[in-house]
Amino acid sequence: MPYVPLSLDPTEVLYAYGPDSVPQVGVEPGAIDEVRIDVSLKFPGTTRRIWIHRPAGLSATDVCAVMFFNDGWWYLDPQGDVRGSTVLDNLSAAGDIPPMISVFVDPGALDIDGSPTKHRNAEYDAFDASYGSFLLDEVLPRIGDRYSISPDPMMRGVCGGSSGGNAALTAAWCRSDGIGRVIAFNASFAQIPRGNPYPALVQSTQRKPSRIFLHAAHRDLNWNAREDNWFAENLETAAALARAGYDFRLVVGEGGHSPNHGGVLLPDALRWLWPNKECCAATGGSACSVSRDSGRCEQSGGHECGDADSELEGRPGDHQTDAAPERDA
Which uninterrupted H or E stretch holds 251? Predict the structure, then answer.
């Protein structure tokens, strides 16, 4: 690992993107289809768009994994902070991740007196099974109509940042029967109504078969405050996972509540989350081979969650910030 000097100002830090986050010569872009969801049972009255990314060379008949990305277009945008489509194209071409359909899901919007109103925090910050069930019961069937998605929960993952990180971990926690892998960048656990449940829950609940990648920023919101401390809540959640023996990884960076570091980390987070040999074994090892180029295995061919119907109740001082248009904390 090359030497990198420690920044003397941990607030004003901007991480540089690596080669996996920019288009590479010879890498064919994947196909992207946009789909509207105008009716939802889990979130009545909401509408949203989703984008389905299929890497080049993946057949509709190949049994594959599925990865959900919260905040939809904001994570997909090749010119944005995360650049999901570019990262997936490069990692798929290199054989660094298993065959995978990726689904970028926008948060819902409500029509209030003719004006679209974001439903993001209501969906993402709630500690209940609603969002996970929405992904599995309302989004996944649309993907299964087009592609051969593995039924194994460990072949399904979800990624998100800020409140989207809350939604990612909560979806896998409450619906571990259907989602087994999580990436949470700069999660806003401090913003969950009635407080962050995970440090206590992880210690008191039987360990779930989940693989979890967490990221925290040293100068996140209220980083040195007693209450509503975004940084501390991420560290305490990670400590609970460590003590409980979870398969997890924590990366701590400099900077504040920004998508920059998470976007830079995405390629390696995905590599760690989806070790290819393990994923081939999860599908029975059929049609697995070793890539001549990469040498990696490839496949081709406790308290339980809250009441899903309970009203989302805010707490005094709840923080909702837009890091970009249509994005809250």
Answer: strand 247-253
* Alpha-helix runs per DSSP H in the chain: 72-76, 84-94, 120-124, 130-134, 140-144, 163-174, 198-204, 230-243, 260-273, 276-282
Residue-by-residue pLDDT tens, the chain, 329 positions: 889 888 888 777 899 999 999 999 999 999 999 999 999 999 999 999 999 999 999 999 999 999 999 999 999 999 999 999 999 999 999 999 999 999 999 999 999 988 889 999 999 999 999 999 999 999 999 999 999 999 999 999 999 999 999 999 999 999 999 999 999 999 999 999 999 999 999 999 999 999 999 999 999 999 999 999 999 999 999 999 999 999 999 999 999 999 999 999 999 999 999 997 666 555 444 334 333 333 334 443 333 576 544 333 333 333 333 333 344 56
The CA angle 85-156-261, to the nearest 5 degrees, is 45
Q: Which of 52, 69, 11 is nearest to 219 (CA)?
A: 11
Whole-number Å distance between alpha carbons of 301 and 303: 41
Structure tokens belonging to residue 252: 């701590």
SS3 for 21-86 is HCCCCCCCCCEEEEEEECCCCCCCCEEEEEEEEECCCCCCCCEEEEEEEECHHHHHCCCCCCCHHH
What 3-state DSSP class applies to 8? coil
pTM score:
0.86
Number of helices (H) and strands (E), helices first, in the chain? 10, 13
* Cβ neighbours for 110, distance < 8 A, ≥ 6 positions apart: 45, 46, 116, 117, 119
Domains and CATH numbers, the chain: 28-299 (3.40.50.1820)
Which amino acid, 316?
A: P
Inter-residue contact 247 to 294 (CB < 8 Å): no
